[in-house]
Design goal:
mainly alpha, Rna Polymerase Sigma Factor, Chain: A, Arc Repressor Mutant, subunit A, 2 domains, 9 helices, globular
Length: about 180
């Protein structure tokens, strides 16, 4: 898929090009949100909101860097804003999903429920960096730009997060200390 041509077509009002671009990234953006929220409905809402933001701002997209990085930057910022909003308002009551809903959602996210559980138990900033690096293949530099932190910070978060994951996957509890 030639994203530059698709984006140019979208800027000229081509609805099919927009549909193609959304279909190409929808599952990745959904999975990103699902890792962070562990809730299918919230993840679907956040994903749709990101694509609305993408459509609203695609006119300003300049072909500098990768479109994928630009889109994940929107997603990371949207997630950060979502958590800020939630911290100021009533907490979500996460509904219990049926086993089939969880299974079908996880099939596209990861093959290991144990890994998903361990990821949910490490600090969000470390989880963000690990997911972006190992699940989506972004470099530390790209992640730093997306999250608006320095590259050494990203590398440290990955290192600490991987250490905690290793401990959790071996069945030991973390000491509760956030690094």
């Amino acid at each position: 898929m030639d994203e530059i041509k698709l984006i140019d077509r979208i800027k000229h009002g081509d609805r099919r090009a927009l549909d193609t671009l959304i279909k190409a990234y929808y599952q990745n953006i959904f999975a990103y949100f699902y890792y962070h929220t562990q809730n299918r409905e919230i993840s679907m809402d956040l994903t749709q909101e990101v694509f609305v933001k993408m459509v609203a701002s695609i006119e300003t997209y300049e072909n500098r860097g990768k479109f994928r990085s630009w889109l994940f930057t929107i997603a990371a910022n949207h997630l950060r804003n979502h958590w800020k909003y939630e911290s100021r308002h009533e907490e979500y009551e996460f509904e219990e999903e049926s086993e089939n809903d969880i299974t079908s959602s996880l099939e596209n996210v990861t093959d290991s429920a144990e890994l998903l559980n361990a990821l949910s138990r490490i600090p969000t900033d470390q989880r963000d960096c690990i997911v972006l690096k190992y699940y989506y293949g972004f470099t530390s530099r790209e992640i730093a730009e997306m999250l608006k932190v320095k590259e050494p910070t990203v590398k440290a978060r990955i290192r600490y997060g991987l250490n905690k994951l290793s401990i959790l996957l071996k069945g030991e509890e973390t000491d509760g200390e956030e690094q």
